[in-house]
User: Fold this.
Amino acid sequence: EFNLTLKLRGEENIPTEGRFVFASNHPLGGLDGICLSSVVGDKFNGKIKYLVNDILYYIDPLKPIFVPINKYGAQAKTSANAINEAYASDNQVITFPAGLCSRKTGGVIMDLEWTKSFIIKAVEFQRDVIPVHFEGKNSRFFYNLANLRKASGIKFNFELVYLPDEMYKNSNQTFTITFGKPIPWQTFDKTKTAAEWAQFVKEEVYSLK
Assistant:
């Protein structure tokens, strides 16, 4: 439907066996997840679980691979259990640790701060982390709206309402996905906090550009 072309780099860095956490930057907020799920799913016979924020969970055809992240309200405990089940399973786990899609600051498109939870889970469930860089961007309108909202002191990310439009604007595009070498879960020791290790992996991802 979107008529996308994907260029893959570093495929040789993906082992044929093992359980991994694919940690990627999140430039698009929708299509990047769909593309990454397709590529990783093809390599592992569809045995993937993709951790998503609530807004993306409603893409019906992909619901079987989605694990919704819901930190608030009555669904929070159910969500936490589902996330643990995904990490404990034989499925590959795909995650965007930034949670929200990238923003443009100082002319540079970059993820917001990465959360530490994927580091904690990688260690707990003994999964090596494969850094992934997805090359892509949303429209100038989207970034300008996000910056205007931020400058106005509005905390609600209302630019997310336009993500479906951004998905269609990115139709007929070519995207490059680069896979780095797996980082052994034993790397994430006590020499750094989990938050610092998350930043370390984020830097590894952007070094793949």
Summary: The chain has six helices and nine strands. The CA atoms of residues 97 and 115 lie 5 Å apart.
